[in-house]
């Protein structure tokens, strides 16, 4: 079963920009003293609640086919007038903007402007709001005529970027940027042409390393599980020592990977391989570590294979398509790449399978309590291939001494109405200039503002 449905465009329903405000008092499950582990951690949307924690460990994974693989696409409905996402006690949730065209990835400029990829409309929108404002005062189209734009980055990093980079499905382009304009001054320059495209997984993201010397671009796999590569096994094994560990070829050349370029687009190599679909690509503001929020493969049952969020180590191989979550061999590729066993890097944080983990950011504001500083926030777009829905929420990724703990916590829930109907599918997360957390969802075209 192909996973292209994880990123299928959802219907867009226009909404008023009238702010809806609620101080939410939802908390963790009564009596929860620690994270859910083992079979309990594989629950579905009905158990989700702000503050509920889960830890999924590699040893907890079921066998492939323990449950059937199903297709259960969500029925997207207009947001009910009373429906507002739920956050932990002490947080306030407001409708920041509505009526947008499938808002996806978001990035905040140094001056506080919020840049949003309206991917299927082929454009970048910019919203401006003064610190503390609950809705934008400026709403402009920065650039249009793009090819399924997703990733956005400012370069060089710091207070005075000179360029805005945008990752299209097949290229990376950049626009001159003086620091405050809300409309591009002209057509973009093409920096990287010919990124792999076609098939599944259309999002391309990009970040710059903290030294501003490398631009990293994530490219998802063309297929669910590299079904067409079996005939190339002999040739693949002959690559050993010539190409990055676990690298694929054929129709999967330069896919399921994070690629490296210099800021002018010169190819520097492959940063990491075997990452099926790194949608959320982010740099930790303190450690400088590269992180991916990743969609894993389908067709092995309700609870396989877990999506994940992980530090991405240069030169590391994360398993796709031959293995998953360490040395678990994919049953569709038994014995095909035994030479790779023991060479797979295990991800840091495993998430309920089929959650469709998308946007990722790290909290570097001052508004939230101190324990949130440096923590990750990831948007879970929601399952289409699980008998009971999972995802459709924003999760928090705690770090301790600069490293993920392996646990994650529900932070923003309430987008699911019942087993069939949903009104929201979170995609982007970013930290506003004043420290609020912003969350986009592309089902009803809204952006939500969470303050403390």
TrEMBL record:
It comes from the Bacteria. Residues 86-300, 343-451 form the Pyrroloquinoline quinone-dependent pyranose dehydrogenase beta-propeller domain. InterPro entries: 6-blade_b-propeller_TolB-like, Beta-prop_PDH, Quinoprot_gluc/sorb_DH_b-prop. Pfam families: TrAA12 (PF22807). This is Pyrroloquinoline quinone-dependent pyranose dehydrogenase beta-propeller domain-containing protein. It comes from Bradyrhizobium erythrophlei.
